[in-house]
Amino acid sequence: MADTASRLTALAEDLLGVPLPVAIRAWDGSEAGPPGAPVLVLRSRRALRRLLWKPGELGLARAWVAGELDVEGDLYDALDRLAGLLWERGGDGAATPAARAVRAARAAGDPRLRSAARTLLRLAGPLPPPRPPAEEVRLRTGPLHTRRRDRAAVSHHYDVGNDFYELVLGPSMVYSCGYWTEDSTLEEAQTAKLDLICRKLALRAGDRLLDVGCGWGSLAVHAARAYGAPVVGVTLSTEQAAHARKRVADEGLTDLVEIRVQDYRDVRDGPYDAVSSVGMAEHVGRVRYREYAGHLHALLGPGGRLLNHQISRRPEKDEAAYRVDDFIDRYVFPDGELAPLGRTVGTLEDAGFEVRDVEAIREHYALTLRRWVANLEDHRAEAERLTSPGRVRVWRLYMAASAVSFERNRIGVNQVLAVRTPDDGASGLPLRPRVWRERGEG
């Protein structure tokens, strides 16, 4: 047992048929792998037990959140090296290279697999793994995307403390990607994104704006303060609503901005001139997306504009692939689903919208996530005090892995501008694409 790392490395490479791109350090202090590579640290046998009982992403996630598995060195480099092996599906869309190797060995009754399993069981020890970390959730509140279940999913993610979110997101409290230039700060990038949305929506003083999934009120405040737009913001998070209402009051905007704890499906006080949905549609789900698009269309008056800012996934043959990964589902966004851009555009058109512009901004999300990770790392002790060490580990991995996914074009993010075009066909938008009217013009 004095060289556990070498044995684990050999077993993994024999099963996968490729060299491991990272080094391994085991609980006995042994280390093996390519020199200079990030080191995957197994702090105890419990990490191996979790992987044996739940092979794949969920076992890795539990070991990571529990602190039994760690990375020494550049976390982004480690995730980038492992992405093609563990997370990214092959050309046939069927499975990751790692999953295909294990399935092939099982199907063929490969004796290597039985031998490897016996060796791993000896190394891991006879005891089953401990219970999943406390940060893991499995929603048991009825079918997917009912009002009750969506409320529980949103509460799990957002009601963990506004002070924690402010450490990560910064003073803007904007939980979607900024809009960057090479020399932007995080705050400047977020302000630029809020203003871009308002300009794409062609907001004028007096235009009614519905902000679906309004978060902590950043867009609502900006639209009211900079454009004179009356805004209704809706969220399912009570903590977000409390923060947003205080912010509105502090800005002296209570006559223009109303914040509600309300499901978007229960908003009935249209017509609105514009609707913004920023980072919310990922929670809607495939089975509800046509209903979502239809309801927003009905809430707009003729000529009303929708700005739908949404994370997308590359098209895949397997419908199940649109559910978020096991780690994200259990620890970050329960019940989240990512759809390809084409499906989103098609559904909006099917609901009656005229899609006028699509802007892909995935690199902007990678830049934003790297800043959020830096904020978390700079304030790690305070973040652990406000939540838990496990929660901080969840967020560090989720944000870093998401940044790598955006950089590798595994996922994207798009702003789709759509109009409820009136019968006379006059959309009211500029003739030239992307020439969004600057504030104060016409």
UniProtKB/TrEMBL annotation:
<keyword id="KW-0808">Transferase</keyword>
<feature type="domain" description="Polyketide synthase-like methyltransferase">
    <location>
        <begin position="164"/>
        <end position="404"/>
    </location>
</feature>
<dbReference type="InterPro" id="IPR029063">
    <property type="entry name" value="SAM-dependent_MTases_sf"/>
</dbReference>
<protein>
    <submittedName>
        <fullName>Cyclopropane-fatty-acyl-phospholipid synthase family protein</fullName>
        <ecNumber>2.1.1.-</ecNumber>
    </submittedName>
</protein>
<dbReference type="InterPro" id="IPR020803">
    <property type="entry name" value="MeTfrase_dom"/>
</dbReference>
<comment type="similarity">
    <text>Belongs to the CFA/CMAS family.</text>
</comment>
<dbReference type="InterPro" id="IPR003333">
    <property type="entry name" value="CMAS"/>
</dbReference>
<dbReference type="GO" id="GO:0008168">
    <property type="term" value="F:methyltransferase activity"/>
</dbReference>
<keyword id="KW-0949">S-adenosyl-L-methionine</keyword>
<keyword id="KW-0489">Methyltransferase</keyword>
<keyword id="KW-0443">Lipid metabolism</keyword>
<dbReference type="GO" id="GO:0032259">
    <property type="term" value="P:methylation"/>
</dbReference>
<dbReference type="InterPro" id="IPR050723">
    <property type="entry name" value="CFA/CMAS"/>
</dbReference>
<dbReference type="Pfam" id="PF02353">
    <property type="entry name" value="CMAS"/>
</dbReference>
